[in-house]
Amino acid sequence: MILSDLFHETYAALSANKVRSGLTILGIVIGIGSVVAMISIGQGAAGSIQASIQSIGSNLVMVQPGFQRGAGAGPVSAGRGSATTLKQEDADAIQKEITQALAVAPEISRRYQITAKGKNTNTQVIGTVASYSQVRNVQVDLGSFISEQNVRALSKVAVLGPTTRDDLFGEGTNPVGETIRVNRVDFKVIGLTQSKGGTGFTNQDDIIFVPISTAQRFLAGDAYVTTISVQAKDAGSLATIQQEITDLLLQRHNIADAQLADFQVLNQQDIVQTASAVTNTMTMLLASIAGISLIVGGIGIMNMMLTTVTERTREIGLRKAIGAKRKDISLQFLAEAVTLTFIGGLIGIILGWASSLAVTAFTGIATKVSLPAIALAFGVSAAIGIVFGYYPARRAAALNPIEALRYE
Amino acid sequence: MIECKNIVKTYRSGEIDTQVLKNISFKINDNEFVAIMGPSGSGKSTLMHIIGCLDTPTSGEYLLDGQDASKLSADELADVRRQKIGFVFQAFNLLPRATVLRNVSLPLVYAAVAKEEREERAKETLRASAFPEGFWHHYSNQLSGGMMQRVAIARALVNNPALILADEPTGNLDTKTGAVVLATFQLLHQEQGRTIVLITHEPYVAEHAERIIHIRDGEIVSDGVNRNRRLINNDH
Ligand SMILES: Nc1ncnc2c1ncn2[C@@H]1O[C@H](COP(=O)(O)OP(=O)(O)OP(=O)(O)O)[C@@H](O)[C@H]1O
Ligand SMILES: [Mg+2]
Fold first, then answer.
1. Where is the ABC3 transporter permease C-terminal domain (chain A) (predicted)?
2. Whose CA is nearest to atom 16 of ligand 1?
């Protein structure tokens, strides 16, 4: 049997019962479509989480206070990051000792009620140093960022995030030169940062930066820091720097057992890896739920093919009588099943693509239709056709020609 | 050449074995026109299935051109059928959603003949059987019974088989169209020298053959030359 005949027979058979073929295809369309849509939503989420991790800077090692486990600590923990175990001196020591570090930016962050011109908002105030803008990839839109001079002089100056600006002064206004009041202390606005896009868990645009010295003196009243961001030269030195900082701080805090450290040193690569592990799991979960509908679609194919084989028993008998071999018959039915899934897969991919675009358009959730996902969907749909078409095709091929001919 | 040696065919349904063919032996030489005649249920179709390599006997030997069919696999039997045998069934068994041309060329599809040659041969065969050209592209389920049977005959001939097996080819036709079909067989036999085995329960139909094998209850009751042969005037 020649390939073109196989196409001819397949077309003739499928078009003979258009409604049934259409409904069976629909099952596959829904299955493949939802798999494609779910994978694209999962990958979109992965992409935006990666982007937001990258947006906090590149090649970062972050030191945060931890809670001390062990003797006397008790079972209740105040939660990671809330402890006050990192001091300004730790930051200074890192700056001095870790020579591989490109820049070190300690910060103290807390939420305060802010008032300006009778409006008020509650937002994150970060006391930090000049290098923060480089380390954490903060771009200034108007005015300037905190300078080293500001830090030395304990200047009462502030740099606003765009969302905070919108809340306090209205959208699109220039806040430079205005005064804001934080915790009964007046700060002069000297700059406005560029928007980072408010994705992720915290809105990086709803924020106020002040000099770290000012924050420690006038707002917090102590010399603790909440995070020390260290930028490495390149991704390759991240692990070394992470180790060096750990060793340094253990020594400074007089802790012998690294298990009992009262701080934690996070490496941005680890964060990225953890996040991608999470998003991959999520994508897998979404795809497997969608995969169930694909299996249901496959069962639909099998159901239709079994019905077709029964209906066409006489025809199969005749074909065998005039010389068709088992292979010819099974190939014919397999081709029908694969064609159904192939068409369904094609429409499903288009539909899945369209619906993920629609999701982005209407909900703003990032989606990403990737070529491998499409290739996978295509492969899966063809495989579904083969798997679920195999049994009916074999059944057709195994029919005894005489039994098939006398079948009423 | 066909040779049946002590052929027995037993069907088993549940616990009961029914012997449909009991010790059938005969020979049919090339270029013979033989009718196998017997009442309904006597085992004619069963015998034809064995002759046509659609089935194998329970015991005994069936030789087609000296080859023992019972030793062949299902696919090898398919090859034999495709190369040597043309079938005409009582119920026509055409593909309903296919054109006349497609139906006639179907055996060539399985012989992997290219499309152009296939169509050419199908047209030739249809022309030779004087099948009106206006109907070549009709779907087979739009034809009359007589026309369907002529399509079925053309399909049986398109492979140019040496042996033509016809099971009640006139059973669904009126006398007149039946006569046309019988005339076609006589012509194929006389002018093209094909071996024809015609299965029927009607003595009138059997009398168109040269030789009549009479079976009853799975046994041959008589086998001999047809002395009052009906010849249809074949000068159309
Ligand atoms: N697959 C089968 N299983 C069981 N019995 C069968 C089978 N095929 C045929 N038979 C039996 O074998 C007997 C002969 O059947 P067969 O079809 O050969 O008769 P026939 O001579 O062709 O009859 P008719 O003229 O009615 O076509 C019948 O009694 C039938 O019931
Ligand atoms: Mg019969």
1. 288-401
2. B43
Instruction: Tell if the CB–CB gap between A402 and B49 is shorter than 8 Å.
Output: yes
Residue of B49, B222, B171 lying closest to A405 (CA atoms) = B49
ipTM value, please give it.
0.93
Chain B neighbors of A327, CB-CB under 8 A: 75
Q: Which two tokens stand for residue A375?
A: 């290739």
Question: Is the CB of residue A136 less than 8 Å from the CB of residue A53?
Answer: no
- pTM (predicted TM-score): 0.77
Residue A71 in this model has a pLDDT that exceeds 50: no
Structure tokens at B205: 């139909």
Query: Of A11, A245, A225, which is closest to residue A106 (Cα–Cα)?
Result: A225
Question: Angle A9-B136-B187 (CA atoms, 0-180°, nearest 5)?
Answer: 110
Contact B129, B161 (CB under 8 A): no
pLDDT in tens, A293-342: 888 999 999 999 999 999 999 999 999 999 999 999 999 999 999 999 99
Q: Which of A8, A313, A322, A329 to mutate to test the interface with B (most CBs of B within 10 A)?
A: A322
A110 beta partners: A125
Q: Chain B partners of A402 at a C-beta cutoff of 8 Å?
A: 49, 54-55
Residues in chain A, overall count: 408
Residues A25, A344 contacting (CB under 8 angstroms) = yes
Ordered by where they begin, the domains of chain B are: 2-235 (3.40.50.300)
**For residue B131, how many other CB atoms are within 10 A of its CB?**
20
**Beta-bridge mates of residue A62:** A229, A266
Cα gap A149→A32, rounded to integer Å:
60
CA distance B172 to B170: 6
Angle (nearest 5°) at CA A270 between A267 and A271: 90
Q: H/E element holding B218?
A: none
Q: In terms of Cα–Cα distance, which of B195, B169, B163 is closest to B182? A: B169
Nearest CA to ligand 1 atom 5: B11
DSSP A161: -
Q: What are the sequence ranges of the domains in chain A? A: 3-52+274-406, 86-261
Instruction: State both tokens at B40.
Output: 């309904």
